[in-house]
């Protein structure tokens, strides 16, 4: 293994101190093992076998890899290059999660270090032996990590992946082909991975698997950089050469990061130096079609610089979202550990654990039954799980559906009267028979003949109403029991969500089977019995009601029928179509009204039996409406509400837990081996995530400015990092940067606030902000001054990037005055900065936490601070003699006054 030196001037240009700190922070995250749980920014090198991947890696890193003969990469290799005063090499193995516990421990213990580079190849061979990789075939998912430090190393981390195989051979089986593709895909799909897709010019790029896989993993091409190797194998002036030149211009396969072309040394040429390789490459690109391409996409030195900046930019851009993801994973871990509870060995510990579960269960059940869904347990109502947890909403909807279903289809016959203008119903209802009134009267008449008692002609036996009602309402029981079953299922689903939320999986299953399910079964049986009781009066009793709605309905039906008969007789007599509008009856013809009188008198039903049938039908229909409304309310209130919903909180009550037998307590709350192992894993995972969070926090504190802009949190990276941007994140994430004792960030200020929150001992160097146009520091530009545009009260969203500069912390704090005066803002002061209106000649009388400047409007050039058109620039003024002892109360909204500038102080 040979390490080749680089030009240290190039290396120095690539790696500022802050860049090194940022990259080192990500390295610490990896070493802590956080990449098992969250995706970390990294560059992965992918390509088909023999595409020149290893040569690319060698040229980038200066580390010679075995690329001759039939040797190839048989496992992912993470190459970490760091600039350091001391030369060192270390090799370790990160076992894949598919390994069993013994293998993970064995491989994880493999760690070797060297003071020089001579024995590096032997170390790699030892690692291969540990991973059980032979000379042929056999690929591994384990990661080989090689860390190389030295004064002439580039600051870079690259993961080299096994080359993609097109088809199986004697040395490479079909399973090897599949395994390599799975490994490459798993790295490509990581959203924070930058894909370095290596394509060999020896073969048609359309036939190379790497492009297909890269496009599948990165559909928009936003994180893929293509690299063309072996351009010297193309015939000058050929169509193939022109095609690859077009590919390099990003015209054929478009990637947002573009393409790069390298000419590496032939592996068969023997020993060569890095300088010779670079010189040969330079000479090659100074000839032929390659001179027509932009020089920025040619050669290894520019690729090395490009990758270093690309990795840094990716890490800086992803850092806030990485912190958010770590927080989410940590929260999930804590939730799982909370479910597991503390280790439970003694009986008292086990019963205490169950009592805690009972308390949580009762509070969440009460919230669910009351319909107050504020607890995180309820989640998003738009999801199925979130809706199922809202038991009050579910039961309300089920009751509503039951009422609609029984109203539409609870009757056996739908009776309509065509003679009264009623039309045949269009929609069919399952189980409902459509019948005319006349035909139904025929059925009643037949029934009355069979049930006749002592009633006089024209009257009916009251028992006929019971028979008719029983036949008409025979579907009620099926609909009611179906509704009860639906409520019981909904309650059971709710309880499963509840118990799985408060308890671990093992305890949840045992608790549900031992306590919850039996208690729920008893409640559901009582609910069914109550339903039977509510059905009994309608199935076995005789009609009873004192509701005035019954008599009103009967009278209204009779009046409507009389009205319809009178209307028909009058229309026929006068020959008019409708009585809904006035009709003129003026005529010289004499009208005989005796036929009208006869028609009205003949309205009386001569058939007394038919009249009795009609009266019985009217009474049955009126009673059915009254009974139906009563039955719907009875099921909803007396059955559902009082027999099941009101008893949910008693299913796992503290009294039950207190008097639970000892053997049941042990069987429910006693810990299984699986629970103990899960607690160990979760504790380990949480420790890794917390360490990662602290690592990110240590880097971010003192290196970011933050504030809010149009209700969005803003984190801006320090200019010294070589990267200036505006990262918008939720305000909640900014709270982690605020030091203890300071108010949390929740302001709405149409501005950017830059704040230094490092320790008192940290002193940053003041830096100038390079803007779009350079401005001389001393001499004014000999041009007419351009008047600044006035800033309106309502500030529009500025689409340009906001430069957020972190000012140095002076030994003696100085206030800042904004001159010329700035317009008023919509303040809600809970930020680490305090702004107070004072007259220009007055000394500051108040001060607050923090230190920084407010800026608005369009970005402009400036030496100190940041200046925006229509805005202002911070300038130092004398500091007051006495420091404040407390943070002042939030200031009211400020009105713009010409003689009252805004001042800033830091405590």
From TrEMBL:
Positions with biased composition (Low complexity): 845-856
Gene Ontology terms describing biological process: endocytosis; intracellular distribution of mitochondria; mitochondrial fission; peroxisome fission
Bias type Basic and acidic residues, positions: 897-907
Residue ranges, annotated region (Disordered): 754-794, 845-907
An MF annotation (GO) of this entry: microtubule binding
Biased composition annotated in UniProt, kind: Basic residues: 857-866
InterPro entries from the UniProt entry: Dynamin, Dynamin_GTPase, Dynamin_N, Dynamin_stalk, G_DYNAMIN_dom, GED_dom, P-loop_NTPase
Compositionally biased spans, kind Acidic residues: 760-775
Domain Dynamin-type G residue range list: 37-320
Annotated signal sequence range: none
Record-linked Pfam families: Dynamin_M, Dynamin_N
GO cellular component term, pick one: membrane
Keyword GTP-binding recorded: yes
Domain (GED) ranges: 613-704
Source domain of life: Eukaryota
Gene3D superfamilies, alphabetized: Dynamin, middle domain (1.20.120.1240), P-loop containing nucleotide triphosphate hydrolases (3.40.50.300)
Keywords, sorted A to Z: GTP-binding, Hydrolase, Nucleotide-binding
Protein's name according to its UniProt entry: P-loop containing nucleoside triphosphate hydrolase protein
């Amino acid at each position: 293994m040979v390490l080749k030196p680089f030009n240290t001037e190039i290396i120095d240009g690539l790696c500022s101190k802050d860049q090194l700190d940022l990259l080192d922070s990500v390295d610490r995250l990896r070493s802590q093992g956080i990449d098992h749980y969250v995706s970390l920014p990294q560059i992965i090198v992918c390509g088909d076998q023999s595409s020149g991947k290893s040569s690319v890696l060698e040229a980038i890193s200066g580390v010679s890899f075995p690329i001759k003969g039939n040797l190839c990469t048989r496992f992912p290799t993470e190459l970490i290059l760091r600039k350091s005063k001391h030369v060192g090499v270390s090799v370790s193995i990160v076992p894949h999660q598919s390994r069993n516990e013994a293998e993970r421990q064995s491989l994880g213990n493999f760690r070797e270090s060297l003071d020089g580079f001579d024995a590096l190849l032997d170390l790699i061979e030892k690692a291969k032996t540990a991973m059980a990789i032979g000379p042929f075939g056999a690929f591994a998912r384990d990661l080989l990590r090689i860390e190389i430090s030295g004064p002439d190393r580039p600051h870079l981390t690259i993961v080299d992946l096994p080359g993609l195989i097109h088809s199986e051979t004697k040395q490479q089986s079909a399973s090897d082909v599949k395994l390599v593709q799975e490994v490459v895909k798993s790295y490509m799909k990581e959203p924070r991975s930058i894909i370095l897709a290596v394509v060999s010019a020896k073969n048609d790029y359309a036939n190379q698997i790497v492009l297909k896989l890269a496009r599948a993993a990165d559909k928009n091409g936003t994180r893929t950089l293509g690299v063309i190797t072996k351009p010297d194998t193309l015939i000058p002036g050929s169509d193939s050469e022109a095609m690859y030149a077009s590919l390099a211009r990003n015209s054929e396969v478009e990637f947002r990061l573009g393409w790069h072309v390298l000419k590496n040394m032939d592996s068969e040429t023997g020993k060569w130096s890095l300088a010779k390789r670079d010189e040969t490459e330079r000479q090659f690109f100074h000839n032929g079609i390659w001179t027509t391409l932009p020089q920025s996409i040619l050669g290894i030195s520019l690729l090395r610089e490009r990758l270093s900046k690309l990795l840094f930019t990716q890490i800086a851009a992803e850092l806030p979202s990485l912190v958010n993801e770590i927080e989410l994973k940590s929260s999930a871990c804590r939730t799982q550990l909370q479910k597991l509870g503390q280790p439970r060995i003694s009986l008292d510990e086990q019963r205490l654990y169950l009592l805690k579960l009972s308390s949580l269960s009762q509070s969440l059940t009460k919230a669910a039954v009351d319909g107050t869904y504020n607890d995180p347990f309820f989640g998003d109502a738009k999801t199925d799980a979130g809706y199922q947890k809202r038991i009050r909403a579910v039961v309300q909807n089920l009751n509503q559906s039951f009422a609609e279903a029984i109203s539409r289809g609870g009757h056996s016959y739908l009776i309509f009267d065509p003679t009264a203008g009623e039309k045949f119903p269009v929609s069919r209802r399952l189980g409902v028979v459509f019948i005319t009134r006349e035909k139904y009267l025929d059925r009643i008449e037949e029934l009355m003949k069979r049930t006749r008692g002592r009633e006089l002609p024209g009257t009916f036996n009251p028992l006929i109403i019971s028979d008719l009602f029983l036949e008409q309402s025979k579907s009620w029981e099926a609909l009611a029991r179906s509704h009860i079953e639906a409520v019981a299922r909904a309650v059971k689903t709710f309880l499963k969500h509840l118990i799985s939320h408060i308890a671990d999986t093992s305890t949840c299953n045992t608790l549900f089977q031992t306590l919850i399910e039996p208690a729920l079964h008893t409640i559901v049986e009582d609910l069914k019995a109550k339903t039977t009781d509510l059905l009994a009066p309608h199935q076995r009793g005789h009609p009873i009601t004192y509701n005035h709605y019954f008599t009103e309905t009967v009278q209204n039906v009779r009046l409507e029928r009389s009205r319809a008969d009178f209307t028909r007789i009058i229309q026929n007599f006068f020959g008019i179509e409708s009585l809904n509008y006035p009709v003129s009856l003026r005529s010289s013809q004499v009208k005989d009204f005796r036929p009208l009188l006869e028609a009205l008198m003949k309205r009386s039903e001569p058939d007394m039996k038919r009249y009795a049938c009609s009266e019985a039908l009217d009474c049955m229909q009126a009673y059915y409406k009254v009974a139906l409304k009563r039955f719907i309310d009875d099921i909803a209130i007396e059955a559902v509400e009082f027999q099941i919903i009101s008893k949910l909180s008693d299913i796992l009550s503290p009294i039950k837990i207190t008097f639970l037998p000892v053997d049941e307590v042990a069987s429910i709350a006693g810990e299984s081996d699986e629970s103990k192992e899960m607690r160990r894993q979760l504790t380990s995972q949480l420790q890794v995530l917390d360490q990662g969070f602290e690592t990110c926090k240590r880097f971010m504190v003192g290196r970011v400015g933050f504030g809010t802009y149009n209700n969005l949190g803003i984190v801006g990276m320090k200019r010294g990092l070589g990267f200036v941007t505006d990262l918008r994140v939720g305000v909640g994430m900014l709270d982690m940067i605020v030091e203890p004792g300071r108010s949390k960030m929740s302001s709405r200020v149409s501005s950017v606030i830059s704040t230094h929150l490092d320790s008192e001992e940290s002193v940053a160097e003041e830096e100038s902000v390079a803007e779009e146009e350079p401005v001389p520091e001393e001499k004014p530009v000999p041009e007419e001054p351009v008047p600044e545009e006035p800033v309106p009260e309502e500030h529009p969203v500025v689409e340009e990037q906001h430069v957020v500069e972190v000012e140095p912390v002076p030994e003696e704090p100085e206030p800042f005055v904004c001159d010329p005066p700035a317009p008023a803002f919509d303040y809600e002061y809970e930020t680490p900065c305090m702004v107070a209106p004072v007259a220009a000649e007055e000394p500051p009388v108040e001060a607050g936490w923090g230190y920084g400047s407010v800026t608005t409007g369009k970005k402009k050039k400036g030496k100190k601070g940041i200046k925006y058109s229509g805005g202002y620039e911070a300038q130092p003024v004398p500091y007051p003699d006495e420091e404040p002892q407390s943070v002042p109360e939030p200031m009211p909204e400020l009105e713009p006054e010409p003689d009252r500038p805004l001042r800033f102080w830091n405590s």
